[in-house]
Design a protein that fits this description.
With 344 residues, this protein is mainly beta. The protein has a domain of 131 residues: Methylamine Dehydrogenase, Chain H. It contains 1 helix and 28 strands. The strands form 7 sheets. It has a 4-stranded antiparallel sheet, with no helix packed on it. A 4-stranded antiparallel sheet has the order 4-5-6-7, with no helix packed on it. A 4-stranded antiparallel sheet has the order 8-9-10-11, with no helix packed on it. Strand 5 and strand 6 form a beta hairpin. The longest helix has 13 residues. It is globular, with a radius of gyration of 21 Å. The chain starts with 12 loop residues before the first helix and ends with a strand.
């Protein structure tokens, strides 16, 4: 009679060898959510997208937009005297504030990392700030501040695309393309969109040659071609069905395979689902966002979960994403104060 060698807790050697794989498959995932008020929210979520709060990192004022870059988070401090804050992720779900720096603008609402620089968009003052990042992830010296020309500029988003920096400005109806060298921005192109459209955010197709611009003020999405830092507007269409109430698009995200584009509709309180075909978008559905004023959305790294931050109803809703059809199914809702951004 042969015997099977067993380890701790009576497990077989095969079971012990397989245990790490199972643990990794079921590993807890974390998300970090920005809001108005004090603190960055910390939460875990499971494979089904159920979110559970695990705490708050206090001492971060009005972090209305938070991004992750490796083992660091960076947050805007959306106040009249604008600032940006660096946060270390010491372990999953364990945050430590490193430092904050003023950015010489007002109402910063978005930011991005480009190599060893942090760029932030100031909505109130309509300019783009650049800071050098220190070796420890902290924010160092401010190296530039570029104001957009025109009547009432309102810089709203920064996108890093290869060697270029794109800045979306709601007030000037423009998308600016810059180069960045030695901490200084130099303008390459200004794409002017429809007057009064109010471009807010853009997202690229994974091919890199198409961009989708969410226009806040006329409830449209514009498809642009993109080549070597130059955007060209191709076509636009509405983001809600005909006869819908006044609506203000918020965030636009693209599925990893580029087949679907998702856009939050504030007012209609829905998520528009578009199917892509070359430079064409087809509106397939507008499922309810599960709350009021869906401001931000993000797809998790698996591509199977979409998190939507409903600012005015105080909840983050998880949707399951059907990878084949692009359809969304609401799975759960997590209550929190004024959620305006999620980072994973």
């Amino acid at each position: 009679m042969t015997t099977t060698r067993r380890g701790f807790l009576g497990l077989t050697a095969a079971a012990i060898a397989a245990a790490p794989l199972k643990a990794n498959a079921a590993a807890t995932k974390y998300l970090y959510h920005g809001k108005y008020g004090d603190g960055v929210g910390i939460a875990s979520y499971d494979a089904a997208g159920k979110i559970t709060s695990t705490g708050v990192l206090t001492g971060v004022a009005d972090p209305s937009f938070v991004i992750r870059s490796g083992n660091f988070l960076y947050a805007v401090n959306e106040q009249e005297a604008g600032a940006v804050t660096a946060i270390a992720i010491d372990a999953p779900g364990k945050l430590r504030r490193i430092n904050s720096k003023p950015n010489k603008g007002s109402g910063p609402c978005h930011l991005a990392v480009a190599g060893s620089y942090l760029l932030s968009a100031n909505y109130g003052s309509g300019d783009i700030a650049v800071h050098k990042l220190n070796a420890d992830g902290g924010i160092g010296t401010q190296t530039d501040l570029v104001k957009h020309a025109g009547t009432a500029p309102h810089a709203h988003q920064i996108v890093v695309k290869g060697n270029y920096i794109l800045a979306v400005d709601l007030g000037t109806d423009s998308v600016y393309t810059y180069t960045l060298a030695n901490g200084k921005l130099a303008l390459k192109q200004q794409l002017i969109l429809t007057t009064g459209s109010g471009p807010r955010h853009l997202a690229f197709h994974p091919s890199g040659n198409i961009a989708y611009v969410a226009n806040e003020l006329n409830s449209t999405i514009t498809v642009c071609s993109y080549v070597d830092g130059k955007l060209t507007a191709l076509n636009s269409q509405t983001t809600v069905p005909a006869g819908s109430p006044t609506n203000y698009p918020g965030e636009v995200v693209v599925s990893a395979d580029g087949r679907y584009v998702y856009l939050t509709n504030r007012g209609h309180n829905s998520v528009a689902v578009f199917e892509t075909s070359g430079s064409t978008l087809t509106l397939k559905a507008t499922p309810n966002a599960g709350g009021v004023w869906p401001r931000h959305a993000i797809i998790d790294p698996t591509g199977t979960l979409l998190f939507v931050s409903n600012q005015n109803s105080g909840n983050i809703v998880t949707f399951a994403v059907d990878l084949a059809s692009g359809s969304l199914t609401q799975k759960s809702s997590f209550a929190t104060t004024t959620p305006v951004c999620v980072s994973v």
